[in-house]
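Objective 1.3, modelling of assemblies. Example input:
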Amino acid sequence: MLIASDTKPMPARAGVGLKPQHVDAILSQRPDIGWFEIHAENYMGKGGIMHHHLQAVSEHYPLSIHGIGLSLGSEEGLVANHLAALKQLVERYQPRLVSEHLSWSQHQQVALNDLLPVPYTQEALDVFCRNIDQTQTILERQILIENPSSYFTLKQQDYSEHEFLVRVAQQAGCGILLDVNNVYVSACNHGFDAYDYIRSIPAVLVGEIHLAGHSVQSILSGEVRIDDHGSKVCREVWELYQFTLTHVGARPTLIEWDTNVPEWATLYEQAQLAQHILEQYTLATTSPDKSILVHPLNTSRLV
Amino acid sequence: MSKIKLAEFQGRFKQLLLSPVIEADANDFLGLIQEHYSDDDDFIEAKLRLAIYRNNVIHSLMTALGELYPVVKRLIGDDCFNHAARKFVRNTPPAQAALVFYGQEFSEFIKTFTPCIELEFLADVAALEFFVNQAYHSGDSVLFDPATLSEVAPEQLGNITFSLIPSVTLMRSDWPIDSIWHENLKVQPELVDLSESQPCSLMVYRRDMQVEVVNLDPNCFLFLSRLQQGLPISVAWSEAVGDAKKQGRELPDHELSSMLGYLFGLSIFSRFSLSSEY
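Predicted structure (tokens):
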């Protein structure tokens, strides 16, 4: 069931992940950017400079709160203290979007600090629906859940990942944060078609898009792609993003960059690229002259 | 073959992510995921892919620990720190996902970590860094204005109790850990002389947004410790006088007002109230 909320919608513009090292540049330059996203867990301290800066940023830009530690896939259920801390944060900053992951990270008083895969079984589906329902009830709002990157395929599953993701969203009444880089990374790692995956996601469920860089490591069979958020978005992911917009429509789009964080100008440039693609798409779909289509991406700008 | 149960999958996966050796546990786990591997390469490939998750977990936590303990890391060097951190992270993974609270046990751990056993001051430096981190993230607080004490009748002054702002932590060490900490935050630290005993009585707190480490006069430390317990000024003072005497020092009564004035100047009290218990 969709939970009614009086939260203002997030504009379908490009945003970036807020990093402490960029706060001074952001507050002094006030760049033209749609919004900022934070990792909830970094703001679970009670006060100090982190909150002081976030408060200042939130006075000028819409916010999205993205959790990485709620562990919605935990069979044992959610950690009440963590959910309470998330609620406190959501109440304090009134973000436009709140999101979490289709993964688990917590097991019997141990937090593993990673987004771990679950087997896509009926049992896991029930676990996700139960945990998401509890989260949405406590937060009194709808959340989005993000498709993960993964590095091995689990056997004996009842669903493919995209089937599972859509079923969870439909049954739990949450939305989807479609991470286009994760789709690409997992498609390469497991040999499925990234475009088929995107096509299978009902547009109405998608509330946000993520884009990020990833790395490539050699492995026995050739190579494996690692979702490390440590570089520019690659050309293939930009192309997949363009396709995603034609399928789901213009959506708030985040550039994530969490390791080897670059100078503000580099991150801003990536956001501007996403913004440019969003605007091109919007122009094409709103123009009465249907002959204006989304232009193929000029790839020379991307790398 | 029946489908894998989620609880079993998560329990075994967790074990494998934290285990120092991949071999025995991995075979067991990979068998849970897939019944048969077509050949050895297939099996080795599965192990390598599993290793990506193991690396992600251990390295992300080691990185987080390094960010929480930059001075310890600098003192013992990257290699030694990574060795210690890898062992600590496996033995004491975080209980909660918010890593701002992680690593409290690292000070105890490093005390018995064999390669560092001769650096007797190291555990206290680690404890200091933990308190610095806690102060950094602690709750904001209003500050008490000493001028408001003028509302209190003179005969009631001794009954005043103070609430401290939430970031305050008091700690003692037999080593000059405040100098060690300050110097090792600099690009080019000065040598800290450890040849003579230099115990310190420290207060860690956050002044506005900046974390400060103050080396208090030992008597002032005793008095503040008593005030922190919620004792009224008069009782805290007489207890502190007794505590000082046990440590072989005098604490003359005429120092009370200057000591209070000094503490007010540090901006560490959030409010006062009048105690009726004493």
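Chain A has one domain: 14-301.
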